[in-house]
Amino acid sequence: MRIDPTELGAERIYRLMTGIVVPRPIAWVTSLSRSGVLNLAPFSAFTFVSQKPPMLAISVGRKGADYKDTAHNILDTEEYVIHIADTPLMNAVHDSSIEHPPEISEVEQLGLETLDCERIKVRRLAAAPVAMECRFRQCLEFGEARSRLIVGEVVMFHIRDGLVTNGKVETAALDPIARIGGPRYARLGEIVTLNTVFQTPKSKD
């Protein structure tokens, strides 16, 4: 089967790519508007781009002709929180993707409890097993739709007790959810451990 992307519109290409690039981790992001509304939205175009300092990237598209509230908020306030959600939060993650006007808080709509952060003003979700306080560092725009790749530095990690052993996250205990094509999500399933291979140390510690 051959598919020429030049013959397809953005929506059809999006459907193809989100079915091919799977499973995708989900960045569940709280951000604060200039007027003080706490926004919440999930983004599955998400990865880390640096380990020292720790930096994360999310791709934020548009809703219609305008950018999504998360992009506006991050560029306005330069602070936000990226959470990793587990299976019990799957419905809340999905429901937080419903588009609301900027003056509506998805956090309040879903009745989610929040906690103060230590280094930034944006509040974090109490129920999430991982929350990472972030400060904005860079924004790049790509493609005809001008999707914004937003890079931020993690200035504080909050990880649920019992999830870290010898400096490593116990992934099975974290039980993260992932996004696949359409309104569908996935869990980890079987974890296969292979032999450790030599890698040049990234630093002295």
Automatic annotation (TrEMBL):
Look up keyword Flavoprotein and say if it applies: yes
Q: Kindly list any coiled-coil regions of this protein.
A: none
Q: Which UniProt keywords apply?
A: Flavoprotein, FMN
The answer on whether this UniProt entry bears the keyword Flavoprotein reads: yes
In terms of Pfam families, this protein maps to: Flavin_Reduct
Family annotation (InterPro entries):
Flavin_Rdtase-like_dom, Split_barrel_FMN-bd
Q: Name one GO molecular function term.
A: FMN binding
| Listed PANTHER family | FLAVIN REDUCTASE LIKE DOMAIN-CONTAINING PROTEIN, FLAVOPROTEIN OXYGENASE
Instruction: Spell out the protein name for this chain.
Output: Flavin reductase family protein
